[in-house]
Amino acid sequence: MVPPAALLQIIQKGLQYTEAEISIGDGGSERVVESLSLIDSVMPEVVDMRKKQVAEAERNRRGGGGGGRMKPEAHNGGEDDHSNHHQAVAMDAESSGGGGGGGYFPANRVTVLRGHESEVFICAWNPKTDLLASGSGDSTARIWDATDPASAGEAKKQLVLKHCISKGGLDVPSNKDVTSLDWNCDGNRLATGSYDGFARLWSTDGNLLCTLGQHKGPIFALKWNKAGTCVLSAGVDKTTIIWDAISGQAQQQFGFHTAPALDVDWKDDETFASCSTDQSIQVCRLGSDCPIKTFRGHSNEVNAIKWDPRGQLLASCSDDMTLKLWSVDRGSLVHDFKAHQKEIYTIKWSPTGYNTRNPNANLYLASASFDATVRLWDVEAGACAQVFCNHREPVYSVAFSPCGRYLASGSFDKCVHIWSIESGTLVHKYQGTGGIFEVCWNSTGDRVGASAADGTVVILDLRMM
Fold it and tell me: Each residue of 233-244: pLDDT tens digit?
């Protein structure tokens, strides 16, 4: 017997992909299609294809106009709840046993940034400065100047990057979600990907430098290469594209997947991996007409992929509830981790071990799952080292601190948790007013950014804590 929740997820996913694909007409033109309405009558816990959680109820409230995949309901608690959650409290000592404990962030250590008019799917710190970028369902990205957290929420401290398309000779808002963004290594360029099918490059002062348009439908992921010379994107059109960051021209389009491409990650400046709802992983190189390697083994769509710091092992996670490690040199599966009880949404490597700033620390891999847990995997031992189980709803994001000693996690229970890797204890916690889609650390490791379903972006200040 299929569990009811699992059946709802299957139905919803079918609707998501069907809606995205039928919106693409012949020759790549986009049709205006009526949203699939079966989802309207249910409130399931859902996985979608990448940074993909928008409440259908919220979508209806905004009067439609969104693009692409359906997302789970944003459980907004309202601003009144927010003030109640963040009264200053004494910080508890680290708790024991990977469970409860950890004190709430005091109010004077929390900055809530408001301005987005819809869910904020993603956020990322500039690698060189205290600029925080965010992408939202309101068809904008924003750059927040968080040099002084106390004033970061002021209008003059935020840049609004409007994602427009040309209609009748005029630039009009695309009304499509901005669900992917990435800073280049120098921190002077921001790339964004949208459900309108375009990637865009921006300067730190908010100027649109280039529009990259060759995908036929929503873009689900994009990444800069390490040199900052190319941008890689993945889309519903089953392709991945390498773009020249200077000219904005497509250098090569790869069409090896048979279903939407969900995620991409660079191995080096010319080699990358991509994953798809077709359950496969392709490793490709610029200039090559065929994949270097194809990995098959997952029994459901592959949600995310990440290369280890050395570029030797490729991690993948899937709706089949498994986490797998692949070796390109061997051309085979190295580890097949099976412990999560529901879909694994995302994974992150620790910035530790060989070829990192923390060479003497163990290398770990963190996985975030819809079973409301985060697991920490010891790659050398081939075993689970820690289970973090304080969340009550699906976990959508994890991020290691730059020193590798702490792990932040964000869940749709509206909480951000910060864990000690060494002890497995909950060190700090924050409860907001909307489900958390993304968490990220700044380059100095003293602030955590989080984006939420209620349209807020939050900065948690760990200095002096």
Answer: 999 999 999 999
